[in-house]
Design brief:
Length: 268
C-alpha cells in the first residue's frame, strides 16, 4: 500500500513538473516577434556596427519595452522594400516617409532626423538655390531611395540611377554626372571610411533638398500592422522618457540634442 501511495505521489509531482515546464515554454512562445528588413546604411544602421548601429538599437529597445522580439534581416535595399510590401517581412527598419510607400505601409513615429543634400566636386562651379536649378545637370541617385521617389516625377530625365551610395561617389568623382543626392551624414561617413582620399574633394550644397525623419514601417499585408505600430510608438515614447534613447545615441557617438522627439511632424 505504501508503495502504491509512493508512486501515486511521485506521479503527481512529475505531472506537476511537466505542466510548469510546458506553461513556461508556452509563455515564451507567445512573445511576438517582428521581422524587419533593411540594408547597411552607416552610421545609422549596418550589420557590422555594434548592435547594428544606433537606429537598430533604438528600434530593438522600443520593441523590447513593450514585449516584442525584433529580428533584423540584412538584405539589399530594393529587396527589403519589395519583399516587405509583399508580406515576406513584417516591415522595414529605417525609412523616410513618401506618399508612394504610405500606400502599402503603416509608419511609426520618427526617431532620427536626416538632411538630404546635393554633393558636387569642389573643383566644379554649380549654381544651386532650389531643386529647379538641377534641370541643367545630371544627378546620381540611389535607385528606390527616398530622393529617387521625390525627384523622379519632375526630373526623371536628369537622374542617373545607381545601386548604392558608394557607387554614386565613385561615379561623381569619375565625372559620370555633375551631382549626387543623398543623406548628408551617411555620405560623409562613407567618404571618411571608404574613400578618405576624396573627402576633401567633395562638398555639400545648401540649402538641403529636404530635412526628413527616420521611421520604421510595417507592411499592411500584416493584419496587425496598426497594433504593431501603436505598440512600437508606446515603447519609443517610454525609452525617450527614461533616458534609454539618449544613452543609446551617446554610446554610438551621435548628438542627442539633434534627435529629440518631433511628434508634431509625424504622419501615419
Amino acid at each position: 500500500m505504501r508503495v502504491v501511495f509512493y508512486y501515486f505521489v511521485l506521479a503527481i509531482l512529475i505531472g506537476g513538473f511537466f505542466c510548469v515546464t510546458f506553461e513556461t515554454k508556452a509563455d515564451e512562445a507567445v512573445i511576438p516577434k517582428v521581422v524587419l528588413a533593411t540594408w547597411n546604411w552607416a552610421p545609422y544602421y549596418a550589420e557590422n556596427l555594434p548592435n547594428g548601429g544606433a537606429a537598430t538599437e533604438i528600434v530593438k529597445a522600443s520593441f523590447k519595452r513593450v514585449g516584442y522580439e525584433l529580428e533584423v534581416k540584412w538584405v539589399p535595399w530594393t529587396r527589403a522594400i519589395e519583399k516587405a510590401k509583399e508580406g515576406e517581412f513584417d516591415g522595414v527598419l529605417g525609412v523616410w516617409y513618401t506618399e508612394e510607400r504610405a500606400r502599402s505601409f503603416t509608419y511609426s513615429k520618427p526617431f532620427f532626423k536626416n538632411e538630404i543634400v546635393f554633393f558636387k566636386r569642389k573643383d566644379e562651379t554649380i549654381n544651386y538655390i532650389s531643386p529647379s536649378d538641377i534641370m541643367t545637370y545630371r544627378v546620381g541617385v540611389t535607385r528606390n531611395s527616398g530622393p529617387h521617389e521625390w525627384l523622379k516625377e519632375k526630373y526623371s530625365k536628369n537622374l542617373d540611377l545607381v545601386g548604392s551610395a558608394s557607387l554614386n561617389i565613385k561615379k561623381l568623382m569619375a565625372k559620370r554626372f555633375d551631382l549626387l543626392v543623398d543623406e548628408k551624414l551617411g555620405i560623409l561617413y562613407i567618404l571618411n571610411n571608404e574613400f578618405p582620399e576624396w573627402k576633401n574633394a567633395i562638398e555639400s550644397l545648401d540649402p538641403p533638398l529636404q530635412v526628413n525623419e527616420l521611421h520604421i514601417m510595417i507592411s499592411q499585408k500584416n493584419i496587425y500592422h496598426q497594433k504593431i505600430i501603436n505598440d512600437f510608438n508606446r515603447g519609443l515614447r517610454e525609452i525617450r522618457q527614461d533616458g534609454t534613447f539618449e544613452n543609446i545615441l551617446i554610446k554610438h557617438g551621435f548628438d542627442q540634442n539633434s534627435n529629440r522627439d518631433r511628434d508634431s511632424s509625424y504622419r501615419n
